[in-house]
Amino acid sequence: MGAALVTSLSDLPIRGDLRGRSPYGAPQIDVPVRLNTNENPYPPSPELADDLARAVREQAVGLNRYPDRDAVELRAGLAGFLGHGLSGDRVWAANGSNEVIQQILQAFGGPGRTALGFEPSYSMHPILTRGTATEWISAAREDDFGIDAGKAVAAIEEHRPDVVFLTSPNNPTGTALPLPVIERAAAAAPGMVVVDEAYFEFARTGTPSALTLLPGNPRLIVTRTMSKAFAMAGTRLGYLAAHPAVIEALLLVRLPYHLSSLTQAAALVALAHRAELLGTVDRLRAERDATVAWLRGKGLTAADSDANFVLFGRFSDRRAVWEALLARGVLVREPGPPEWLRVSIGTGEEMAAFRAAMEGAVMEGAA
Ligand SMILES: *Cc1c(COP(=O)(O)O)cnc(C)c1O
């Protein structure tokens, strides 16, 4: 075979709007302390694992058949978990909230349409937007990473986006939005408004959910996931709550049988064990607040966080700090905003390792 036959991506007839784009790429490095993708550090108990194995065993003998295409039992279970008077016909589930968001963009975005988000925020929103040939419009958050309601309304009125993303608590900053900001954005938006509440369970007590705004807002969608507080990132289960008509729209674009029977069974087991799985949230919140206080005590800046991670800085050479931490076995994240790093909240032991690694990085002169 000659070298001329070697094909690289740039030789392929890929869509022009995907040329030069980078894929999502949080490094998956095998180090002792992984604090870079906001997972819950506490694994399921052996009892839960046994229940999962039993549920998978029950499904195994029926794997020659397609799963329930509409995941009726799971959606009813998720609705019961969410409360707010929701029922299964107002809840939709897919393989992670990423797939839920992709389906929203397939149905409400697309060529000639736009989606607007307030950055810095979750990097997958623009990636999924562009993947569905929707144009991404970036609006700015304030210096404290909040969203100014007046400016948000102005940006929405200027661009008239088909989809608006509001992430609360926001990733990578940890910032939760007051409900009036969401209400005013929703009132101004001509299209769909997606409130990404992936980290809602970690919000400080009293933080209201956008679920309370669903009645009377048929163009509002609230997304959640089992990947973070629920400690089930490997299961790939995300979900949303919205008006039943929104779910009818998603049925038009979803793949048939998109949620495997094994995934549906695992998610039902997770729901049955919700007390155990969510039982670590208080511990993680306390560890988060302690981490913010410790970083500030060291003279660093740390953003207030309603999530299970902390954005901290500011570093003129954050790469040097990231590498100094990695050299000590601690993997953190270099998120969107330059000069900042993001650390996911791990176990008490892992956070002690993070603090020790930070001390080491400071002594070395990296931080
Ligand atoms: C982690 C995260 C998600 C979760 O994605 P899944 O596909 O459910 O694992 C969604 N939104 C934000 C803002 C996140 O940080």
UniProtKB/TrEMBL annotation:
Q: Where is the Aminotransferase class I/classII large domain?
A: 33-353
Q: Which residues carry this modification: N6-(pyridoxal phosphate)lysine?
A: 228
Q: Which Gene3D superfamilies match?
A: Aspartate Aminotransferase, domain 1, Type I PLP-dependent aspartate aminotransferase-like (Major domain)
GO terms (molecular function) for this protein are:
histidinol-phosphate transaminase activity; pyridoxal phosphate binding
InterPro entries in the cross-refs? Aminotrans_II_pyridoxalP_BS, Aminotransferase_I/II_large, HisP_aminotrans, PyrdxlP-dep_Trfase, PyrdxlP-dep_Trfase_major, PyrdxlP-dep_Trfase_small
Region spans: Disordered: 21-45
Catalysed transformations (reactions): L-histidinol phosphate + 2-oxoglutarate = 3-(imidazol-4-yl)-2-oxopropyl phosphate + L-glutamate
Q: Please provide an example of a Pfam family that matches this protein in its UniProt record.
A: Aminotran_1_2
- Coiled coil: which residue ranges? none
Q: Which residues form the signal peptide?
A: none
EC? 2.6.1.9
- Give the required cofactors: pyridoxal 5'-phosphate
Pathway in which this enzyme or protein is active: Amino-acid biosynthesis; L-histidine biosynthesis; L-histidine from 5-phospho-alpha-D-ribose 1-diphosphate: step 7/9
* Any one GO biological process: L-histidine biosynthetic process
Q: Which UniProt keywords apply?
A: Amino-acid biosynthesis, Aminotransferase, Histidine biosynthesis, Pyridoxal phosphate, Transferase
Q: Which NCBIfam families match?
A: hisC, PRK03317.1
Q: How does it assemble?
A: Homodimer.
The record's similarity note reads: Belongs to the class-II pyridoxal-phosphate-dependent aminotransferase family. Histidinol-phosphate aminotransferase subfamily.
- Name-wise, this protein is Histidinol-phosphate aminotransferase
